[in-house]
Structures are given as structure tokens and as C-alpha cells.
Amino acid sequence: AANADGNDSRITFDSPDGPGCTAANVCTILLGSGLPQVNTTVLLDGAPNGARITLDGGGTHTILSAFGNTMTVNALAFVNGTGGSGGALSTNFTTLTVTNCLFANNSGGAIRSSNRTALIANSTFSGNSGGTSAGINHGGSGLGAFLTVRNCTFKGGTSANGATAGATGIAVLLSPNELRNNVFVNDADPG
Alpha-carbon distance 122 to 110, whole Å? Predict the structure, then answer.
């Protein structure tokens, strides 16, 4: 529905007890395929549900991708996404804001953003893997390409060369960045 009319969209989740739910609005949504690429301004907000919604890529595809406009993601968990560049989120020419999210066990890195501003805050990255970065891979020299990462935790991640999360939590190419109050841990027990 986010792309249907070309207007800005807000997506919230109201999941009664059902398949994948352990209680009302405490649900894991197992995706049979990646969600449709977002090409309009969209807010995906799990806060009304107390951040208890998990989007599970099933280990076979990128969970969410966007091209152009603005995407804001708040209070959701992204797990088991797989992509060549961004297993959970992959954006290009998209202004991206991610707050209060969990990224766990994603392959291809958790987030790939390029050619626009990205703000990632108050989020946790655990057990992700990727070629260049297990957590966030940001790059590009496009107008306004800037990465800000604040108050995030990166733990138990690995890169293709076997480096641990301390070395591969964030990779930035051709883009200025601001990193503040982040924690990098190579935790043998990512739980």
C-alpha cells in the first residue's frame, strides 16, 4: 500500500493473536519474499506495539529495500535477512532514519545505504555477517551523503574475511560521518 498512490505513508502493525504471535502484537512475521521496494516517503512504526514486531527474512532475501524519497523505521526487529548488500535494509538515494530497532542474524550486512543521509540511533546489531561490514555499510558521494550513528551497540558480527564486530560494525566509503556513543563488542555469546 505504501507505493499504491504515490503519497506519503505510515505503516503500523496491529496483529491479534494468530500464526507467529505469542500474544496480541507480539509477533514474528515470516516473509515468503522480500517486501516490495519502497519508492515513496514511508514510516514503518512498531512503537504502538511496544517494539514487539519481528520481520523475519527466512534467510533467503533482503527484508526491505527503498529507492528515492525518505524512509523512517522505528521500533522493529529485522532478523534472518539475506542480501548481497544489506540483508535487512537496502536503500539507494533514500534519506534513511532508523531508531530503536534490532538487527540480528542478517547476512550481507544488516543495513546498506548509499547516496543520501542516514541516521541510525538507539539500535542493536547482533550476530550479523557481511562482506565489508556486518552492521552498517554506507557510501556514495551523492548530494548530502552523510552517515550519523548514535547510541548503537554492535556485537558478534563477522565480515567475509573473518574479522569481528569491532572491525566490521560500520563501513563508510566516500561519505562524511559522525559516530557517537556506540559500543562495539566481540561477544562470544551473542545472546
Answer: 15
Asked if 59 and 37 touch (Cβ cutoff 8 Å), the reply is no
3-class secondary structure, 125 = strand
According to DSSP, the β-strands at 70-74 and 42-45 are parallel
What's the CA gap between 48 and 60, in Å, rounded? 28
For residue 149, which of 130, 131, 160, 133 has the smallest C-alpha distance?
A: 133
What DSSP state is assigned to residue 166? H
Q: Model confidence over 118-161: pLDDT tens digits?
A: 999 999 999 999 887 889 988 876 667 899 999 999 998 887 75
- Beta strand pairing status for 95-99 and 111-114? unpaired
Return the biggest CA–CA distance within the chain.
47
Cα–Cα distance for residue pair 161/184, rounded to 1 Å: 18
Q: Helix (H, G, I), strand (E, B), or coil: what is residue 33? A: coil
- Helix (H) or strand (E) holding 9, with range, is strand 9-12
CB 140 within 8 A of CB 110: no
- Phi/psi for 38 (5° steps) reads -85, 130
Distances (CA, A) of 65 to 18, 20, 107: 27, 23, 15
